[in-house]
Specification:
The chain has helices spanning 2-40, 62-67, 69-81, 85-99, 149-152, 157-161, 192-208, 223-227, 239-248, 259-265, 281-295, 316-321, 324-327, 402-410, 429-436, 453-461; strands at 46-47, 52-53, 172-174, 177-180, 183-185, 214-220, 254-257, 307-313, 331-336, 342-346, 356-358, 381-386, 394-399, 416-421, 440-446. The protein is an alpha/beta fold.
Amino acid sequence: MYQAKHYAENEQNGGSKAAMILSVAVTLAIIFILGILAWALPQRTYSEYERRDLTQMPEFSVESFFKGEYTAQIELSYADTFAFRDQFVRAKSLIEDCRGIHSEGTIHGKVPVGDGEEERAPSEDTETKPDNNTSTPENPDISQNSQSESQSEASSSEQQELEEPDDGAIGETIDGIFVYKGMGFELFGGSKKASAYYASVINKYRAALPDSVRVYNMVVPKHAEFALPKKYSSLSNSEKDAIDDIYSQLDDGVIAVDAYSVLKEHSKEYIYFNTDHHWTGLGAYYAYTAFTEAAGLEHYEYSDYTKHTIEGFLGTLYSDTMDNTMYNNPDSVEWCEFPVENETWQYPKKDLENYYKTTVMASYAKGTYSYGVFLGGDYPLTIVKTSGVDNGRKCLIIKESYGNALSTYIASAFDETYIVDERYYDGNIVDLVNERGITDVLIVNNISASNTNFHIANIEALLTQKYSGSIAYPY
């Protein structure tokens, strides 16, 4: 009896040891295979899933080796570039979602209002280039503006008029983004001080430019203004009130373009992305019609364009949150062929002495860069010269990323269009206007940018800064 029991225990212990050895062997084999793949497969430089640069293998130096920096960089590089990393990150996100875990988020509860708004940094919108030669996002810039008391209690009456019956769906904040029904929203803080600063800078443009030049300003509302449910409307200040506040402070010589009204009229249409902080091409088209009306120009009907669609776009709001409801609610990017024969040139960043020929629409855009179909992304200067418009008018557009989509429509209404990104252009706007015979200047920003000191200061600096070299033009 004792011998039988002892034999059974030995069998059990032997089985446990065998299982343990097998488990260790399988684990080591997986680690070994992944390690080999990490070195054998082409090393990626960017993660589309996370929308960030990946740490690369360091260059060896004796100094970095003895400081420990070299080996630390190798460890980071391996952690960033091991095989199937995106799939593992996606699996982690799914597991955390099932467990109800979100980093720094409020799970199905009341969403707190922040003291201000975070505005994306100078290269939140990347250049889209063919053959996967694409530049990548830079570090984010935080708005320095505080929330004003007069706006903190305001919730747009226009928004409430569009409200549908409450179906009981619950929203949550994830890393500062409010997520509701598979849609991400950037909440607006803003301040009267920032609005006054922005309006004063626009007025400086009117004063600095010749009287013969028409100066326009367009401030664009964002998705939360029209789509945030009534029960969460107090989380975001009224963008309409902030836009009206800016426009009320503009000099008589500045033409305020009312994009808000036309976007409100079409707010039930697909004018904003669900997973990205930009508007869609359709939203930009409606704002283009508002501009042409203010400028006394004809516009194309949307039905007249030849259209194309890029499917499966997961944008910045998804990459910021890794939220699975947004993952399951991807966007599509519809873009219109430029309707006028043209020649288009662009300049590299930090170099206005060289340019290259390109196209208005970057038809090769795909994946996380799909919004880059508009102008190919963010460049210091893009020049579009049309054939057949012949109205004697030349437009300068000063913009951040919201202006990319808008510019692809506006450029078809002018003989020449100069598109300047306020974050990257090193030249002087007054010189550009005078040298190129500009007749119309449009300054366009989304509501967050118009309430962010970083962007306002950039726009102001364009009036006084000087390029150290000699700017070259294609004609």
